[in-house]
Each structure stands twice: as C-alpha cells, then as structure tokens.
Amino acid sequence: MNHASTHQTTDITQVLGENASRVEAMLDRLLPDGGGPEKPLLDAMRYACLNGGKRLRPYLTVATARLFGVSEEQAFRAAAAVEMLHCYSLVHDDLPAMDDDELRRGRPTCHIAFDEATAILAGDALLTLAFDILADPATHDDAAVRIELVRGLTEAAGAHGMVAGQMIDLAVEHRQVDVATVERLQALKTGALITYSAEAGAILGEADPDARESILAYGRDVGFAFQIVDDLLDEEGDEAAMGKAVGKDAAAGKATLVGVLGKDAARQKADRLAERAVESLEAFGDSAGALRDVARFVVTRRT
Amino acid sequence: MNHASTHQTTDITQVLGENASRVEAMLDRLLPDGGGPEKPLLDAMRYACLNGGKRLRPYLTVATARLFGVSEEQAFRAAAAVEMLHCYSLVHDDLPAMDDDELRRGRPTCHIAFDEATAILAGDALLTLAFDILADPATHDDAAVRIELVRGLTEAAGAHGMVAGQMIDLAVEHRQVDVATVERLQALKTGALITYSAEAGAILGEADPDARESILAYGRDVGFAFQIVDDLLDEEGDEAAMGKAVGKDAAAGKATLVGVLGKDAARQKADRLAERAVESLEAFGDSAGALRDVARFVVTRRT
Fold first, then answer.
1. What phi and psi values does residue B234 have, to the nearest 5 degrees?
2. What distance in Å separates the CA atoms of residue A270 and residue A222, rounded to the nearest whole number?
3. Nearest chain B Cα to A99, which residue?
4. Of B127, B135, B171, which has the smallest distance from its Cβ to A37's Cβ?
C-alpha cells in the first residue's frame, strides 16, 4: 500500500511536470510580447506567468477536458486562461499594500523585479487577457460555451469569489476566527478558482448536468484539501524547496484551518476531503484516473 | 449661431444629467451590497462608482444603442458595465504607486477613503464585474452578441488598450515626446474605452458592418477630442468646478497634446475632431442627433 502510493506520487509528479511544460508553451504563445514604451508591462506579464509553477489549476482543466473528449488545443487555451487569472491574483496579493511578499517561486515578486505601478498594471492586464482568451473563438466554436466559460470565471474570481476571499483574508488578520469563517474564507480565496479550473474542462466538453455536478463536487474538495495542505506546508515546509518564505501565516496572523483545528485534525480533514473527491468521480470509472491521482497528490505533496 | 450652440449645450447638459441618474440607478442595482468580513470591498466598489460623474461613456453606449433600437434595460446594463470598467481604471490610476491622487470628483479617492489594499481589490472586482454583466443573459439573449461585447471590452481595456496606455503614460513622464507618441498614448489610455462605449451600443443593436464602422470612426474622434479638452481643462480649468486638482499634468510631467502642440493648436484639433465625428454620422440622418450633441458637448464643456 505504501509502495503503491509512493509509486503513484512519482507518476503524477512526472505527469504534472510534462503538463507544466505544455502550459508554459501555451502561456508563451498567448502572452503579448513586444517593444515600445509599454514594454515593461508586457515583460512584467510574462515574468509573472512564465516561472515554472506546479500548474495544478491548468492541469485540472486539461485532465477534466480530456475526460469529456475536448481537443488539446482548446483544453490548453482554457488552462492558460485559468493560470493567467491565478498569476494576476498572486501579483496583486504580493503587493506591499497586501501581503507584502518579496519572494515567489524562488524569484523576486513582480513589484520587486519591476515596480509597484507596473505590477498593478500587469495584474490588471492578465485578468483582462484571461477573459479575452476564453471569449476567443479559437477556444471553442460555440459562443454559448465561451460565454459560459467567461461567466464561470467572473463568478469564481470576483466580489463573490476570489477577491472577496482576499478581502476577508486581510480583514481577519490577527483576529480570533471560528472554523466556519476560515472555511468560507478558503472556499472563496482559493477554492472557487480551483473548482472553476476543473469546471472549465466540463464546460468546454459540454458535460451533462450530472457529470458537471460531480466535477464541481470533486473540485470543491480538492480545492479545500489543497489549501489545508498549503497551510500545513507553510508551518512545516522547507523554504528552499518551497521557493518562498515559510512560517509567514502565523507571523502575519493569518486565519488558517491549521490555526483553528491544529495540525493533526487539519491533516485528517485534508485526507478525508481527498478521499471524498475521489469518490465523486465514481461514475466516470477508469477514465477519471488522472483526476484521482491529482486528488491524492494534493494531500501527499511536499512543496 | 452662437445662441443656437449655447442652447444646444444647455440641452445636452440636461440630457446627460438625466442619463447620469439612470446610470447611477443601474449601477446601484448591479453592484453587490452586503455585510460580512468582505464588507469593505463591497463598500469600496460602491464608493468608486456611485459618485455622480458626468457618465459620458455610458451615455455614448445608451445613445448608440437607441440608434439601433435596443431596449433600455439592455442598453443601461451594458452602459453600467462600461462605467464600472472606467471606475476601476480610475481607482487603480489614483493609487500612490501610480498617479497618487487624493481627490476625485470632489471626494477623497478610494484608497484614501478606505485603504490601498481595499482599493486594489475593489478595482479588481469592478473589472471582473464588468465582464460578468456583459456575459449575463439579461444583457442580451444571444450568446454571440454577449461574447462580442466581452471581446470588444477585453481588447479596449487590456494590454493592447487602456492598460498599455496607462503604462505608456507612466513611462514617458518627464520625457520629451513627439506628437505620434502622445496620439498613440491617448488612443490607448482613454480613446479605446470611449470608442468601445459607443461600439457596445452598436454590438447590442446588431448593427450592420457599415453602420458599425461609422460608429467606430465617430467614437475614435470623440474619444480623442475628449482627451484633448480634458488636458486643456487641466491647464485652464477651475479646481472647485472640476472636483479634482488642476495643473497636475504639467507638474507631473505628463505627456499631453496640449504640451506638444500648444493650447491653440490643441483646441483647433479638438474642434476639427468633433466636426469629423459629426460627419461620420451622416448616414443615420436625424436619428443620430443625440450622438451629434455629445460630440459638440465634448469640445464645449467647462468641466
């Protein structure tokens, strides 16, 4: 059992690595490049995206899209849009007025490498470009599918989704919070976009309502498990391996489930969520193996 | 002639005022409201939008939509999306790292009234909400029309549009620039969104290609004329009437057409652009009277 699970983790690491290369190539293709006086903006957009992250979110999009027979070109386009949205959120979150981070994926954050104004604008432009890619006929020939992709992302990313989560994250710093508040915060701040990452593949594949609901249930559990493990790694992880500062949540008084439940209970919850995510995929049989591997990876990863 | 033109200006002022009230009402309806720990975000979004601006951009959307027989509900929804996009850009432009403005439309700017983090997030959420409204079936029942609205806005607002213009605006501060650079800067920074404001009405109304091209030509000229007059008012205007600091462009070393051409030549250019905008509407006959009035208003306004 232990051997099998270790073997699986190795496999998914390789699969994620290959996927990350293809996501990187698609990002490189879709990001603007050029000279002129706006060059710092374009450079900062590329810097913020082309940095070798794990690319978990775009992998969820691609793996789900494959489940529904979507073409690789369309799947990777939507995946790149999801990743741009994620990268914009990191650029803005890292700003001095927000989390004030200087290191991200082992490199200076965008506002350190460029300047604050350029980082703000690069985030704005990445957010806008994510919608542009989803709305582009090359992403799907049916306008109804494209508009559903756009709408799903506006809901996941906006004032009732990710941005609300970031606001709550800042608002409850250094304050006593209960489990329900932390769960809502995480569902909004990271859960909504991770759930959408999987949902986007189902939208592209025009999945029927039952299949779509299964994917949503899977995405919600994977997203929450991911965030809990992120917080555990922030407490326990190795700074060099993580490529960013660790122990920052506690220092910044961040509300995390690890903080309110303790490490052991948080770890158990993450494992239970990953199991339930796997169970959500039952109706898909063997074809959902890639998504099951992701759910298990999310709670076994070390970085 | 002078009398007629004064009379016309009075009329359009009243028309704009009535339109502004209806835009305000639609913004109030579409902006999120609520409590919880994310309340500062929602409050800041409302603060940034509900402030009694002239609402020129949404009026262009509504007036163009009427030309093509669009329902008032759909026209004002798209108009509100355009205004939210504009308000997001003002919130981010006013940030300390950008233009560092403390006064906007006679009130403290968003980051002064709230704080920088909340202002950054409010801008992000307004940008996202603008796309959400355009993608909503209530804005048009045909997904192809909605996706065209979304795509038009991503192009006007992103790294090849408004955000690029803002980057250039910052990049060329205190530098010697030529007329071509200033014209490109203005076309991107303010021209693209003003042009889209009119175009959105034509998209909603499923205008034929010729009509659409006429509206685009009109929008480009009105947008450029608007910006030139804005720069003239910054040099000549009355701070109390403007509701913001004046003389700031010169102090900040901003590149303006007034700076490179001088006041008289800039004024003449604005007048010529307004005339040409009016000529672009020839094919519409009397039905385009409202749009003609806007073009004339843009170059005769005092605030």
1. -65, -30
2. 9
3. B117
4. B171
A95, A135, A160 member nearest B120 (Cβ): A95
Contact B38 A127 (CB under 8 A): no
Size of interface A-B (CB pairs under 8 A): 151
Contact A120 B125 (CB under 8 A): no
Q: What does the pLDDT look like over A7-26, one tens digit per residue?
A: 455 589 999 999 999 999 99
ipTM (interface pTM): 0.94
- What distance in Å separates the CA atoms of residue A214 and residue B93, rounded to the nearest whole number? 42
Q: How many domains does chain A have?
A: 1
CATH number of the domain enclosing B174: 1.10.600.10
**Residue of chain B whose alpha carbon sits nearest to that of A157:** B128
Chain A closest CA to B295's CA: distance in Å? 29
Residue A108 backbone dihedrals phi, psi, to 5 degrees: -55, 140
Nearest by CB: B167 against A38, A127, A129: A38
Would strands A103-104 and A107-108 be described as parallel, antiparallel, or unpaired?
A: antiparallel
CB contact under 8 A, A120 and B128: no
Query: Which residue range(s) make up the domain with B62?
Result: 2-300
What is the residue whose two structure tokens read 């293709």?
A29
- Closest-CA distance, A277 to chain B, in angstroms, reads 28
Please tell me which residue of chain A has the smallest CA distance to B137.
A147
Q: Looking up tokens 């986007």, which residue turns up?
A: A200
pLDDT digits (tens, 9 = 90+) for A89-111: 999 999 999 999 999 988 999 99
Q: Do B167 and A37 touch (CB under 8 A)?
A: yes
Least confident of A77-81, A204-208, A238-242, B222-226: A238-242
Closest Cα in chain A, distance from residue B272 (Å): 28
pLDDT in tens, A181-207: 999 999 999 999 999 999 999 999 999
Residue type, B26: M
C-alpha to C-alpha distances, B146 to A35, B133, B196, nearest whole angstrom: 32, 9, 14
Asked whether B111 and B172 are in contact (CB, 8 A), the reply is no
Total number of residues shown for chain B: 303
Query: Are A120 and B97 within 8 A, CB to CB?
Result: yes
* Min distance B59 CA to chain A CA atoms (Å): 23
